[in-house]
Structure formats: structure tokens, C-alpha cells
Amino acid sequence: MTFTPSNHCLLFYVDETGHEDFKDHEYPVFGLGGCAQVAGLCHRHIDVPWSNIKDGLFPEFKGRTMHASELRSPSQSQVNALADFFREGLFSRLAVVTRCDVTKPNNYTTIDAIAIALLNNAAKIAAQHRS
């Protein structure tokens, strides 16, 4: 089965950072973040530029997902390319991060609190795309 959204559908690309139970004591944060773009523009503004960076500057990740936690001593040109992609890309950005010492509301789990906050951010982005 192939996913074929309407060109006007707003797509969100989301990834996590850290561990939701803060199991890595060296990295005591957890977050979700990503970008959004209407489907008709995703290929041009997200997929192609990301593939060009990944395949051109990070050949070890060709054909597989690139995880920042796997980067070992990235060069300045690699860091600059990643920063430029996220800073200058023609797409919306969203992110929510929490630390292990933050009290969650109403006894929510970390993933509950982060997901609700991320969905609130996504709703703000979606409201800007109404026709």
C-alpha cells in the first residue's frame, strides 16, 4: 500500500531525541521535533535537499536513516549544511523538549506531556495553512 496524500495535505516529519524514561544519564532530556510542509512541496523543499545533504556529506548513511546520535566528529562543513537546512529550509518547524527534573502536569507520563505540547504546536502551524 502506497501513501499518496493530496498535494494540499499538510505533512509533518517528526523524530525524537533522548529517551522518554531518561535512561541515558549523560543526556537527561527527551523531545520531539520536526518540520511541516504541504505535500505538493515536500519533495522540493524537504526530501531532495535532505537527500542531497545526507548522501553527499554523510555517505555512511546512504540508504538508511541518519541519526544524530551516530555522528562521530562531524566536520564543520557537515555541521554547517545541517544548520543551514533547518535554519533556511522552506518549511515550518516545531519542537518540544523536557528535562528529567521537570514535573509533568496531572501525573502525565513524559511522552503524554511532550505529545500534547507537540500537537498544540502542530495545530498552530496547521492554522496558518488553512485555505
Could you write a compact summary of the structure shown?
By secondary structure, this protein is an alpha+beta fold. The chain has helices at 39-57, 76-88, 110-128; strands at residues 10-18, 29-38, 92-99.
| Low-pLDDT runs | none
Number of beta strands? 3
- Helical element count? 3
The whole-number mean of residue pLDDT values reads: 92
Global shape? globular
Trace the largest sheet across and list its strands: 1-2-3
Describe the structure.
- By secondary structure, the chain is of the alpha+beta class.
- It is 39% helix and 21% strand.
- It is built from 3 helices and 3 strands.
- The protein has a 3-stranded antiparallel β-sheet with strand order 1-2-3.
- Helix 1 packs antiparallel against helix 2 (76-88).
- The two termini are 29 Å apart.
- 10% of the residues are buried.
